[in-house]
Amino acid sequence: MTDRPDPTRPLAGVRIIEISSFVAVPLGGMTLAQLGAEVTRVDPVGGAADYHRWPLTDDGTSIYWAGLNKGKQSVAVDVRSQQGQDLIQRLIADAGVLITNVAGRQWHSHETLERLRPDLIHVEVSGRADGGTGVDYTVNAGIGFPMVTGPTALATPVNHVLPAWDVACGLYTALAVVTAVRHRDATGSGQRVSIPLENVALATAGNLGFLTEVMVNGASRSRIGNSIYGQYGQHFTSSDGESFMVVALTGRHFRDLTELTGTTKAVAALGVALGADFTDEGDRYRYRDALTGLFTVWFTAHGAAQVSEALSSTSILWERYRTFADVVTDAKVTDNPLFTSLDQPRVGTHLAPGLPVAIDGTYPAAVPAPELGDHTAAVLRDRLGLSDDDVRALTDAGTVA
Fold first, then answer.
1. Distances in Å between the alpha carbon of 181 and those of 25, 36, 98, 192, 330?
2. Fewest C-beta in 10 Å: which of 198, 207, 318, 323?
């Protein structure tokens, strides 16, 4: 009887070489590994630019690097030497898929590698479509988001902490590989895929209306603090100083909010005075400051526990603002099947997320990240057919580590 394939590993059998650093491509590679692909990250001897990136453990191990490379194999090669480049080219030709954000290197360009593997899938992430360099924070600065982020009275840009474009770009990278593999299975042909980080940001800004709004209406979005554009949403502070984000997207949400805060009659009177229809989400947004003034009285008269209990009995969308330190002890982590206990070498044992997609009710669990070069010898033997003596000679020469 033939064993049935594991539904949580739909990419089993797909082999990928990753040459990368920082967020986008490492995230893409890790996502593909979590879906069952065999992903081998190739780094320079001593590690790439992100190998020691903060946060670090007390002994200097990068928590960041371990977090983005779970479940991969690691090969360390002297990427500057001709012999090292030849080895990597052979590994890529054997795997048939390369993902990289180390752009502009002729020796692992699509043109060069296609000669070795005609059906190669080559996915390259770059900073900008014109070939210029860029990272999440510089791309974000040039798109417009920092000028609409932050308090309403602020005159300076505010960068975001979350590298949103890197994350989106990493997921586009994984999607590009999956679709290219399907295309190759159907046609026998490889693909060359380019994903400029700046274009990912521009596409998102356009799809969400930030750019279209200017083109059509001739007006740029303004800063609105913690409000939600076009809807009613605001943060409130309880009597004991805890902050809450409260969102009323629908008419029911808004009615529940007015009933909870005892402002139903006051809101109706405000609507008459302003000529506003608060059944309309646009009017709830336009007059958000006046509405917030009414609701604030209730929040400042109740403690956090009372606010939480009261909001929980309604349809209102809400959450208490929390720190990362709060979150790691919360049931949303400790009792969440997404997280499993992971013994990460040199980092320690901790709860780590696997793939945040439940497949037939199961979340693929996290697998430890390798140490740099952990799989060098095994990969060279298994994939390139090198002998132990061959590997020893390459190691002695400093070509691999």
1. 17, 14, 12, 12, 39
2. 323
Tell me: cis bond preceding 55? Omega within 30 of 0 counts: yes
Q: Is 129 helix (H, G, I), strand (E, B) or coil?
A: coil
Report CA Rg, the chain. 26
Contact present, 352 and 339 (Cβ < 8 Å): yes
In the numeric block, the tokens 């692909």 are attached to: 37
- In the chain, where the domains are located: 15-206+337-396, 232-320
Instruction: Tell me which DSSP letter residue 108 carries.
Output: G
The span from the CA of 181 to the CA of 103, in Å, is 22
Residues composing the chain: 401
- For the entire predicted model, the pTM comes to 0.95
List, by residue number, the catalytic residues: 166
Residue found under tokens 């209730």: 298
Rounded-to-integer distance, Cα 372 and Cα 332, Å: 32
The residue written with tokens 């696997």 in the block is 354
168-180 tens-digit pLDDT: 999 999 999 999 9
CA distance 33 to 13: 11
φ, ψ at 74 (rounded to 5°) = -125, 130
Cis bond leading into 356, ω under 30°? no
Query: Which backbone phi and psi does 247 adopt, to 5 degrees?
Result: -130, 130
Residue 191 and residue 225: Cα distance in Å, rounded?
44
Query: Which CATH number does 15-206+337-396 carry?
Result: 3.40.50.10540
